[in-house]
């Protein structure tokens, strides 16, 4: 395991090599193994890295970016099989270089026994006066998740709390059909190929019906232009609050609302990896109190 | 994805039936029909893996298939397959990602014109085909009714709008 001084005094970056004694982009014949130490440290905090070989290539750069994402995207750390909230707040660019702050944080994590995780949280739908989970809402198969829990990214919790608030103001009820979605096909197989990129896969989307009195505003209601005034007002409110409504997509998806994260950016890639890993490995998911 | 809104023409549907008629006696679709299974057929052109609408459609369909049980059979109709594989003929235009529900001895089948984006649609049809009580609100999710016949002479299922 890496110790505090193992990374050397240089800003390690792509192209560095223990074997060639190149550190910080320059040849420095001091016979150290700084890149290997970095790679071992990244593995120690459970950042995926296929090979520890002393060569700072694309894999090491990507792993370092993933660690930098964990530093700045959310405060959750795994510690001794449980989850803790790190009070040390850091703003860090995803540079893929071992700058002073990244090196310091990596050392601090190892000293504290912190291990990486994603930002999934659970929200208790019973705390939401104007939202309920529908009959078809699937409870995620995960040790932390209970009946009535809605799982989302912490960064998109406001999507649901805002929807709840706006629904109350417009006197409609939201019936949730889906929030976070587990990637891949069901064990029994797939009829059609699942999508590989979606805001649901990172926990940034919900699907719901807007129920206004006895009217369920569903896809066909919208297709026929027969949605209620309450539904129209609620949707306008959500769009004004900055969220996307699927009814505006080129292929309309009227139950869908999301807080979009560019699906081709590093932040999406990393959140996808860590949040899906939480489910696959049964890592803890904290319950967030909306009040 | 523009494909979603485009439609499969009746001509294509007829082509499907013409090409498929040669070897239908043991086709799993026909077997499922005669076995009294509830059958779900969807049109499945090349998926757009980054399209949210497609993603929701695929999720709800796959989830339903995973939980529906052995009395249900699922088929994807690939309009780009050559020759087309399913021994079924539609007497109406079938839009992409439409879902058809049929079952022998039912008064009617159903077609949902376009992607199903709400699990309540599956719940409605499942309750209908399994003879279970249907809560009032679920009728708001009912797909369009269609008439289904099996043509013994050429081993084809024929689906038409209900008259
Ligand atoms: Zn959705």
From TrEMBL, chain A:
The organism's superkingdom is given as Bacteria
**InterPro entries from the entry?**
Peptidase_M15C (IPR039561), Peptidoglycan-bd-like (IPR002477)
All copies of the Peptidoglycan binding-like domain together span 35-68
Peptidase M15C domain residues are 195-258
Pfam families (UniProt xref) = Peptidase_M15_4 (PF13539), PG_binding_1 (PF01471)
Name recorded for this polypeptide: M15 family metallopeptidase
Automatic annotation (TrEMBL), chain B:
Question: Origin, by domain of life?
Answer: Bacteria
Entry keywords, A to Z: Signal
The stretch of residues making up the signal peptide is 1-22
Q: Kindly provide the name given to this protein in its UniProt entry.
A: Lipoprotein
């Amino acid at each position: 395991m890496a110790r505090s001084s193992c990374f050397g005094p240089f800003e390690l970056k792509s192209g560095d090599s223990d074997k060639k004694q190149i550190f910080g982009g320059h040849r420095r014949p001091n016979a150290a193994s700084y890149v290997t130490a970095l790679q071992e440290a990244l593995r120690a905090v459970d950042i995926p890295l296929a090979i520890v070989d002393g060569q700072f290539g694309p894999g090491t750069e990507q792993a370092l970016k993933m660690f930098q994402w964990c530093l700045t995207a959310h405060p959750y750390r795994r510690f001794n099989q449980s989850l803790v909230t790190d009070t040390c707040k850091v703003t860090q660019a995803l540079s893929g270089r071992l700058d002073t702050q990244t090196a310091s944080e990596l050392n601090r994590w190892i000293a504290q026994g912190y291990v990486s995780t994603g930002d999934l949280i659970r929200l208790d739908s019973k705390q939401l006066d104007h939202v309920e989970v529908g009959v078809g809402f699937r409870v995620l198969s995960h040790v932390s998740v209970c009946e009535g829990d809605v799982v989302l990214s912490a960064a998109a919790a406001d999507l649901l709390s805002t929807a709840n608030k706006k629904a109350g103001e417009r006197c409609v009820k939201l019936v949730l059909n889906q929030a976070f979605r587990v990637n891949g096909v069901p064990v029994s197989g797939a009829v059609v190929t699942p999508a590989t990129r979606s805001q649901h896969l990172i926990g940034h989307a919900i699907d719901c019906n807007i129920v206004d009195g006895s009217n369920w505003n569903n896809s066909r209601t919208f297709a026929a232009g027969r949605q209620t005034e309450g539904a129209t007002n609620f949707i306008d409110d959500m769009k004004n609050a900055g969220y996307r409504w699927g009814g505006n997509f080129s292929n309309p998806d009227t139950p869908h609302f999301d807080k979009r994260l560019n699906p081709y950016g590093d932040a999406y890639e990393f959140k996808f990896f860590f949040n899906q890993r939480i489910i696959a490995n049964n890592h803890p998911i904290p319950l967030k109190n909306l009040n | 994805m523009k494909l979603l809104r485009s439609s499969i023409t009746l001509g294509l549907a007829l082509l499907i039936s013409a090409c498929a008629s040669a070897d239908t006696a043991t086709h799993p679709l026909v077997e499922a029909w005669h076995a009294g299974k509830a059958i779900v057929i969807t049109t499945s052109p090349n998926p757009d893996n980054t399209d949210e609408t497609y993603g929701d459609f695929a999720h709800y369909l796959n989830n339903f298939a995973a939980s529906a049980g052995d009395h249900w059979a699922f088929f994807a109709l690939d309009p780009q397959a050559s020759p087309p594989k399913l021994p079924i003929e539609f007497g109406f235009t079938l839009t992409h990602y439409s879902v058809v529900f049929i079952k022998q001895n039912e008064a009617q089948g159903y077609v949902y014109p376009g992607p199903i984006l709400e699990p309540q649609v599956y719940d409605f049809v499942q309750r209908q085909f399994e003879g279970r009580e249907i809560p009032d609100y679920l009728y708001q999710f009912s797909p369009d009714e269609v008439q289904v016949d099996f043509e013994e002479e050429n081993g084809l299922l024929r689906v038409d709008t209900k008259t």
